[in-house]
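Q: Could you fold this chain for me?
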Amino acid sequence: MDYGTLRGLFALLILALFIIIVIWSYSKKRRASFDEIANSILEEDNVTAADNNQAINKDSKQETNNNV
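A: Sure. Below is the predicted structure, expressed as structure tokens.
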């Protein structure tokens, strides 16, 4: 087995893995899970948002100009 044949087999292996991953990711069983994960970024917890706003306001008040 020469180097060219080995590279060809490796390329086929990578292609097969790519096809398997694509089929797995677009399967109907995984769709609900992926949709839930994709939409979770849009769901914002009000407590977390309020805490973030308070932290931002606190940081902006503490900033001073030391370049006098």
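A (continued): Residues 3-25 form the longest helix (23 residues).
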